[in-house]
Amino acid sequence: MRIHSRRIANGALAGLAGGAAFAAVMKADMALSGRRVDDFQLLAGFGPTRNRWRVVGPIVHTLNSATVGSLYAMVADHIPGPGWRRGLTFAMIENTTLWPVLIVLDRVHPAIQSGELPVYNRPWPFFVENLRHIAFGLVLGVAFERLSRNDRADDFP
Fold first, then answer.
1. Which domain holds residue 117?
2. pLDDT (tens digit, 9 = 90+) per residue, 34-51?
């Protein structure tokens, strides 16, 4: 049980690192392109948090990153290849699986409806979301592999 919980914790930590990479790519692509494809606002820009999305969005993104990292820890051994490829594969599967949710959000999200955010089911948002998930997955896989390697080394005297 101790090894399992440590593995999940390593996944959460690796997910946090991947989430930081995702956020850095998001900030960079928005600055370079001038296009506001802001996942923080997408995550928290509706309901009671709509006016506080600048604070709540990064918090939700951080929690999502840790949760996705923990899920990755549970399945990583079933994905072939080195850590970077496993993380990349996992992140792209996650992105592809969740993309249909954006089709619904395009129709109901207040920030998209008001024009504050662009419609996501278009080529540019699709492109940058893939870039962001590539960064997330690469960092997730490498970080998890390194954390896990350190744990295995700690198990031996």
1. 2-154
2. 999 999 999 998 888 889
